[in-house]
Amino acid sequence: MTKLKGKVALITGSGRGIGRAIALKLASEGAKVVVNDLDAAPGDAVAAEIRKGGGEAIAINGSVSETGFSDRFVGAAMETFGGLDIIINNAGYTWDSTIQKMTDEQFQAMLDVHLVAPFRLLRAASEPIRIMAKKEAEAGREVFRKVVNISSIAGLYGNAGQASYSSAKASLIGLTRTLCKEWGRYKVNVNCVAFGLINTRLTQPIETQQKTIDVAGRDIKVGVQPQMLDAMARMIPLGRGGTPEEAADAVYLFCSPESNYISGQVVVCGGGLII
User: Fold this and answer.
1) Active site residue 186
2) From CA 68, how far away is CA 269, in angstroms rounded?
3) What architecture is domain 8-200+243-269?
4) Domain edges within the chain
5) Torsion region of 13: left, alpha or beta (phi above 0 gives left; psi -120 to 50 gives alpha)
6) H-run or E-run covering 192
7) What is the rounded distance in angstroms from the CA atom of residue 153 to the CA atom of residue 197?
8) Residue of 165, 186, 252, 261 with catalytic role
9) Which H helix or E strand runs over 157?
10) Contact 95, 110 (CB under 8 A)
11) pLDDT in tens, 139-194
């Protein structure tokens, strides 16, 4: 399978869970992958796994929210692989509270990772994309590039306890549709996948996993109460949460050549869940 042969894909948050599955999926279709994770070990491991399987990959690790990260990420892709064809804004986590308990720090942290970081990455990629698109147009070639932003059903419908996360994910849809209009002239398809319940370390039952993760020195509570997971599963027409691989398949749809005339769209990958 080589539908993405020669394409260069940048995927944030691709050392674990959904991001890892996306990286492996795109690599299996021939893409050269620039992996990223907040922590070096998982990011390096995914890049090594791709190379072991005969693909090409490098890891550029660190926080997507750090000043200068986007330029470093895009620069590595251009320097190592000489191009930039696919951008997946996937990195993120949740830091929940009801609004009366939510701090400014919590609210801003969610905006930073889910909205500001994707904005900065797309801004950093804009000039290389413009230059490459201009050369291709002058040569009479129509080359499509892909942006897939990762949102959530919380961004579409809201979710109690997630005012910050829902706000950021909703705003990301606005960014998606704006870039669709700005970058159409460069033959860039800009779309969004909104996930429902996907089974990862962030959504596992609380009693079966670690209760916090470290994000930039902050201990962030992760996991979902079992009774809430059971309730969500009953609401999903397909009867269960999705796997990271199924989530990756939804993203791949927007990376494939078959999506060349689709842009500005939001697809819900949630097993039929409509809240």
Assistant:
1) no
2) 32
3) 3-Layer(aba) Sandwich (3.40)
4) 8-200+243-269
5) left
6) strand 188-195
7) 9
8) 165
9) helix 153-157
10) yes
11) 999 999 999 999 999 999 998 889 999 999 999 999 999 999 999 999 999 999 99
